[in-house]
């Protein structure tokens, strides 16, 4: 006999044998979240299990939704301000207490994880004594909180540390935001059993209850030791050990408060008893919830990403389309990656290079990626074979017949690009979408040699294509709406995120990342210690150090782009203004023969045999060390011998130079959406994620846009007119407005 009761978001079902099933089932939402109704229900359930303890043999926690449990309500989080800290803290303790009361009842509690358990879902599961996950397709288990600037605050840090030890908990689960399949979660020790069917899940749950009439968490045993050796219930707090060196390195001092707080909650919490660990966790959680960074990141990763992917920029009224067969021209680094990504999404690919052999090399790249995926258990042999069968390498134009889209990725040479489009236009389907993956050449210019210029569009991928989620779609002057809609659909079809920009040299991403690189290089020329320049990029939160990135891209590339841009600017009657970085790059290439990594030497030394990156080139200090143009000369700098610039200035020169030019791109109409600018800056060019994107960085700057403008003026006075605020910035500052769509 069953006795259902209505506790609003958690349903209580009890059978004749005393097994209570708690069904997570929010009646008002499609997914379960930790909203106010849930917290009330949790209290009510905790009261009831305690009151009816003697009639209960065991508890199964499961969900009636497709996912097990979704986590916090992000809309709510965006509205919480610093004055609500106490409220957040108390609410958090209430959730922890509710879960803890069920956990310490003395009866077996089993999580029957029927779908994704991310964040709060995994935390609820971890408060159960035994976890059985259903091997549902696409089902994922993990803590994505860090990617939103938060930490798992419902006991997630305290329990994961107790299960896996501090280092594994941090590196594999808490700091990465990684999501694992149920099988991998089981291998890692967070899940006990993985089953194939819902029926089996419930049978196994009952079997656990039958076998463990009394049950508790391992950390509630007084002799339990946290993996790594610390007692789980120490009688007194011991001294904190030094943070593991690899963790410190990984954080690199970047301004990601979530990572800092997770690290602190984990390490401090591992030294004290469970209840104290929960209080520590609550404190760090609250600090993040009321702070600005989490809001920035939620806005960008959740709301902006949704806006971008849902197609606010896609022309309306055009039927969604699917590409069946794509011609990829050029099987070099980019072409090979594009071919792989298309084939992965189920599209037939004809990969064309100058010869069948050259094309086969491109296909070998996909083979390499798949071999790795296979060893890591990320694909199966059958899937690998099917994907490879979809890629046909060729040197023969005739094989492109019937392709309904073309993606060109030959050398960055306008004459060559014109030639290959002329060749293929007559062979592929008569209405095929024509895309170029140029990284800098104006699309309007490339379209000149093409007969159907309205079907011609830029599709700018990022390297490595299989990993980078962004594609920048560039609309040329003659590109039609239909081509734009089809390009948008193609990008979504291959599961990437599209931003849409209007044509301009370098578009959005290539142009803006150039400022970051230029500032780093310019500082070397001013005599700033190059190691400090690298450190400043890391401290600002950039994923790549500036000089090492410059080496990867080669120092010859910006020189080439600069020459082309100079010629085009002067031809259009504009005034060409050199950048202080130019002279440094020229000397590096011409005087010192150091063109970057592919040339064997750049800002860094590279091992001749392995090509591995070594140290920063000692000659940098010798040749540029006592330069000293620009710079405020103020104290607090990190340079050793050369010019000392405050670290804050170094970081902000990189951030501001990118932000100011992004505003200019909005003024010029190259960018038309703030959401695109935010997402594109994070996913495409490594603008620090803690900011919530380049426009959100300006909005969130201390003092808002006006504060940003005031600081830009200071940088302008100290380092040059390139930091002068633009008209739009001045206008927004004056009106007290923010940048929004
Ligand atoms: P790459 O040198 O690795 O490959 C170019 C390939 O094109 C070579 O395999 C070459 O044999 C082939 N090719 C030359 N002429 C051809 C022809 N007539 N027909 C067919 N194939 C021909 O270059 P890449 O790095 O892959 O760059 C390709 C394009 O992508 C360039 O326009 C580049 O600007 C752009 N891009 C590069 C990056 C990057 O990070 N490398 C990023 C975005 C865009």
UniProtKB/TrEMBL annotation:
* Top-rank lineage group of the source organism: Bacteria
- Residue ranges of domain 3-hydroxyacyl-CoA dehydrogenase NAD binding in the record: 325-503
The pathway where this protein functions is: Lipid metabolism; fatty acid beta-oxidation
* Entry keyword annotation includes Lyase: yes
Which residues belong to any copy of the 3-hydroxyacyl-CoA dehydrogenase C-terminal domain?
506-606
What keywords is this UniProt entry annotated with?
Answer: Fatty acid metabolism, Lipid degradation, Lipid metabolism, Lyase, Multifunctional enzyme, Oxidoreductase
Q: Which Pfam families match?
A: 3HCDH, 3HCDH_N, ECH_1
**Record flagged with keyword Lipid metabolism:** yes
Family, similarity comment: In the central section; belongs to the 3-hydroxyacyl-CoA dehydrogenase family.
The protein here is known as Enoyl-CoA hydratase/isomerase family protein
Q: Which organism is it from?
A: Streptomyces niphimycinicus
Identify the taxonomic lineage of the organism of origin: Bacteria, Bacillati, Actinomycetota, Actinomycetes, Kitasatosporales
């Amino acid at each position: 006999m069953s006795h259902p009761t209505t506790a609003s978001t958690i349903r209580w079902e009890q059978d004749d044998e005393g097994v209570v099933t708690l069904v997570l089932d929010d009646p008002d939402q499609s997914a379960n979240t930790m909203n106010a109704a849930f917290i009330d229900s949790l209290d009510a359930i905790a009261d009831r299990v305690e009151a009816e303890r003697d009639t209960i043999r065991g508890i199964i926690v499961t969900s009636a939704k497709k996912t097990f449990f979704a986590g916090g309500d992000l809309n709510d989080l965006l509205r919480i301000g610093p004055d609500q800290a106490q409220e957040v803290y108390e609410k958090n303790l209430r959730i922890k207490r509710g879960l803890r009361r069920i956990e310490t009842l003395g009866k077996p509690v089993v999580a029957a994880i029927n779908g994704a358990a991310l964040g709060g879902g995994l935390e609820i599961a971890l408060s159960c004594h035994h976890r059985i996950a259903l091997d549902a397709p696409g089902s994922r288990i993990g803590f994505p909180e860090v990617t939103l600037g938060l930490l798992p605050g419902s006991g997630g840090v305290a329990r994961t540390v107790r299960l896996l030890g501090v280092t594994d908990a941090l590196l594999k689960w808490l700091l990465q935001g990684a999501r694992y399949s149920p099988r991998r979660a089981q291998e890692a020790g967070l899940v006990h059993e993985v089953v194939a069917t819902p029926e089996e899940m419930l049978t196994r749950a009952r079997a656990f209850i039958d076998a463990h009439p009394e049950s508790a968490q391992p950390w509630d045993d007084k002799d339990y030791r946290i993996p790594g050796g610390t007692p789980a219930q120490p009688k007194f707090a011991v001294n904190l050990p030094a943070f593991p060196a690899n963790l410190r390195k990984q954080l690199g001092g970047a301004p990601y408060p979530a990572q800092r707080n997770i690290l602190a909650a984990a390490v401090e919490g591992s030294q004290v008893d469970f209840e104290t660990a929960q209080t520590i966790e609550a404190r760090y959680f609250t600090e993040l919830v009321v702070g600005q960074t989490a809001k920035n990141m939620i806005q960008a990763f959740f709301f902006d990403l949704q806006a971008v992917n849902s197609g606010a920029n896609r022309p309306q009224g055009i039927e969604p389309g699917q590409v069946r067969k794509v011609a990829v021209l050029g099987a070099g680094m980019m072409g090979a990656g594009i071919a792989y990504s298309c084939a992965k999404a189920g599209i037939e690919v004809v990969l064309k290079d100058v010869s069948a052999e050259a094309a086969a090399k491109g296909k070998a790249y996909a083979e390499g990626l798949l071999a790795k995926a296979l060893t890591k258990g990320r694909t199966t042999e059958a899937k690998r074979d099917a994907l490879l069968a979809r890629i046909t390498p060729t040197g023969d134009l005739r094989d492109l017949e019937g392709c309904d889209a073309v993606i060109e990725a030959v050398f960055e040479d306008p004459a060559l690009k014109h030639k290959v489009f002329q060749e293929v236009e007559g062979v592929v389907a008569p209405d095929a979408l024509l895309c170029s993956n140029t990284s800098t050449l104006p699309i309007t210019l490339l379209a000149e040699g093409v007969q159907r210029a309205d079907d011609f569009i830029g599709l700018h991928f990022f390297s490595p294509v299989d990993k980078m989620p962004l594609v920048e779609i560039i609309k040329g002057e003659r590109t039609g709406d239909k081509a734009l809609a089809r390009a948008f659909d193609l990008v979504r079809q291959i599961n990437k995120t599209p931003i849409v920009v209007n044509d301009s040299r370098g578009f959005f991403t290539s142009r803006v990342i150039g400022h970051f690189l230029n500032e780093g290089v310019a500082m070397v020329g001013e005599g700033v210690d190059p190691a400090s320049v690298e450190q400043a990029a890391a401290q600002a939160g950039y994923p790549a150090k500036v000089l090492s990135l410059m080496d990867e891209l080669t120092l010859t590339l910006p020189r080439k782009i600069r020459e082309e841009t100079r010629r085009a600017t002067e031809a259009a009657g504009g005034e060409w203004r050199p950048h202080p970085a130019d002279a440094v790059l020229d000397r590096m290439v011409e005087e010192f023969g150091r063109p970057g990594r592919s040339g064997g030497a750049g800002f860094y030394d590279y091992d001749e045999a392995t090509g591995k990156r070594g140290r920063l080139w000692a000659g940098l200090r010798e040749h540029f060390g006592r330069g000293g143009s620009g710079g405020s000369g103020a104290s607090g700098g990190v340079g050793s011998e050369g010019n000392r610039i405050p670290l804050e200035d170094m970081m902000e020169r990189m951030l501001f130079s990118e932000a100011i030019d992004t505003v200019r791109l909005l003024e010029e109409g190259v960018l038309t959406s703030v959401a695109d600018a935010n997402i594109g800056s994070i996913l495409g060019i490594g603008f620090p994620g803690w900011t919530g994107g380049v426009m959100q960085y300006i909005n969130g700057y201390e003092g808002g846009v006006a504060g940003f403008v005031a600081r830009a003026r200071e940088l302008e006075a100290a380092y040059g007119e390139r930091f002068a605020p633009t008209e739009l910035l001045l206008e927004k500052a004056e009106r007290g407005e923010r940048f929004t769509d």
